[in-house]
Amino acid sequence: MNRRFWESKVASGLRILLGRPEIRAFAVSFAPTVLALAMQFGTLLMLAHGMGAAQFGQLATALAITALLVETVGIGSGDVLVRAVVQRPSDYPSYYGSALWLGALTLPVSAAAGWIVSTNILHVKIGAAPLAGLMLFEIGGARVAATAESVAVAHRDVIRASSVRLISAASRFVLALVVLQLFHVRNVNAWIWWAAGQSAVTAIGLLSSTTAAYGRPANAIKHAEVGVGLLFATNQTARSTQANLDRAFMASVVSGQVLGVYAAASRFVQLGLFPMQILNRYLYPLFFEHGHRGGLLATRRFAVKCAPLVFSVGLIGTVLVSVASFLAPSLLGAGFSSMGPIAVALSVALPFIALQSPPAEALTGAGRQGLRTAVVIAMAVAFSLGLTAGAAVGGLWGIVIAFVGGHLFTALLLWGILFRLSSSSTVSSR
Question: Residue 32 and residue 38: Cα distance in Å, rounded?
């Protein structure tokens, strides 16, 4: 009897959970995203093991800069596309075309900025020409993938959005398998040129499939939306700073070996963000819907409704990273034996990172993108100062503490601002 009782309770609970659209979307996206996560994990293992901690640390530092600069390419046109298509689906061709044009025009500038920062400020020990290729093709490929994902999200196609990540991860995994395992390439400069070719081929494929699925882009640039797009881009870059700047700071305070260990731990934490990214693909356009209908009051209610689920998914990320980080050193080699505790400590930040999304998206959905951007920029500056102080006082563990504390404080600040704003103060920027 007890067994039947609990079986019925579990079945009832599953029906309730799967009856919620955000849970259904999470479940549908789970398989391709888990596959992408597994392949990214495999690529990370092959890179770290094949190149060693010192070379891997240099590569990871350069990749952290590309992750920051991806958000500057296209000056927010992907987010502008999502907002526009959710509200006016017929405008898709012109916004898609604008995203592609703005991306092409801004990519060389962002790549050049990344090369200058990497060589003159961070002193990354990678050849000048390979580093330029890394900046151009990694940033460009990531921007194309982000645009393809934005198009799918705008059309509520969560499976295709998840598939974009899967295609990008799978192509890089196959490349690592061939180049690192079959051809035994161990030099970071040689690897970069192989990866550049893979990024170009993958980008062409994603653009072709996106166009075939949703229609051709119009030859247009949305000049009137550039200002709003700049707010989106500034906000996303500031948020990316909090996720990637720790590796840049580590490059200036520790040896190459320790940098490689920290970089591997940090990349593990980035993989722990995947469950949140699945959920956010579904939730992000809904904030625009709620804001369009009811302003800040509606988006705030929706943020509160999402918070427990988002926090729980962040905890899942922490558990995944903690388990994986203690298994990885045996696969990466003896040089990474100290990685486990660092990765676990960094992963504590994942639930706090998750909790930043609902209040931030609530402000954006209600037309308060300017306020959101101002807050995130201020926090990015404070985050940088915190990392600087942590590095000066506590070295590696000082940076870890500053990383976790900075994300906790950012989450608390965003929720505090959301609740202090009155619904009557909402000003639309649409």
Answer: 10
